[in-house]
Specification:
Length: 283
């Protein structure tokens, strides 16, 4: 019976911590509750008082610190502390916090934690100096994530000569590439890059025609099953010398773009890169 009573009391304290009508003074009291479940409920509240979140950012329980790390009401001081937390899941939670600012992103971009740097690389509003730092990251995975998610054509151009195939595959999958960059990728030495490209983005007619004769059957098969390949190109693949490619082209019934005139260079063509990324070496 004692256990049942304790459980019931715990449920009521959790409910109190989650109740929108519970005031700041009560929440502050609950922030030192013996139950991590109650403390986590307080830590997750966007209206939790600062004096309650401050000790919870140092809580011994990971789930509590993780809740603070996600909380948009967490102060910059708390987030700076949590981005250096010993537990990786707490650190990663900071990256998803809408209050994560440039100072915190800078710490993340320089962290030893590769996943933390990768999370920064995927952010849309990334400062140019941090993007430049990540372009030269020692981890191909981080550079790939930057290549796949950046909206900056200069960053894409700086990564284009990267020697690691997975990085160039990341660029190939990015819809923000310019027509010039897509042309370069269509002639990439790796069939994996060329296959990723034809699956992801629309290409100029000249590049499509050249890829019809690609030396890799895997690239032509990727074209045959790609949703962004025009119907006239898929129709041409029905006569491919590789029967598997031809069969894939004949059987394809998924969405596809209609025939259209050759693509023109996209707006916002890239500028010169020399000043933004000095001394970039391919990896």
């Amino acid at each position: 019976m004692g256990n049942q009573g304790t459980t019931g009391n715990l449920d009521s304290r959790v409910s109190l911590a989650q109740d929108k009508k519970t005031g700041p003074a009560v929440l502050f009291g609950l922030s030192s509750d013996p139950s991590a479940q109650v403390r986590a409920a307080v830590a997750a509240r966007p209206d939790a008082p600062a004096e309650a979140l401050r000790p919870l950012a140092r809580d011994r329980d990971r789930t509590v610190r993780q809740a603070v790390a996600r909380n948009p009401a967490a102060s910059q001081g708390n987030l700076l502390r949590l981005v250096g937390d010993a537990d990786r899941k707490v650190r990663w939670a900071v990256a998803a916090n809408p209050s994560c600012d440039a100072r915190i992103r800078q710490l993340m971009a320089k962290a030893q934690d590769k996943e933390l740097r990768g999370l920064v690389a995927e952010m849309e509003a990334l400062e140019p100096e941090l993007a430049a730092l990540l372009v030269g990251d020692v981890s191909p995975e981080v550079r790939e994530r930057l290549a796949r998610h950046t909206y900056d054509p200069e960053v894409l151009a700086a990564l284009l000569p990267d020697r690691t195939v997975r990085v160039r595959k990341g660029i190939a999958a990015n819809e923000q590439t310019t027509a010039e960059q897509r042309h370069i990728l269509a002639n990439d030495s790796s069939p994996d890059v060329r296959a990723a490209l034809v699956r992801a983005v629309e290409l100029d007619e000249a590049d499509l025609r050249a890829l019809l004769n690609d030396r890799s059957a895997d690239v032509r098969r990727a074209m045959a099953t790609s949703a962004v390949i025009p119907s006239h190109i898929r129709q041409a693949l029905q006569d491919d010398p590789d029967e598997t490619v031809a069969d894939e082209a004949r059987r394809y019934r998924g969405p596809q773009i209609a025939d259209r005139p050759a693509a023109t260079p996209r707006a916002g063509h890239r500028r010169t890169l020399g000043k933004r990324f000095p001394g970039k070496t391919a990896r």
